[in-house]
Amino acid sequence: MDVKFVKLVSGDTVIGTYNEMKNVLEDVALIQVVPGSAGIQIAILPFGFPFEEKIGGEISMDKVLFEYSNVPEDLKSKYFEAKSNIKISTTMPTGSLGETAKPKEDKVIDIESLFKKP
Question: What pTM was estimated for this model as a whole?
Answer without folding.
Answer: 0.70
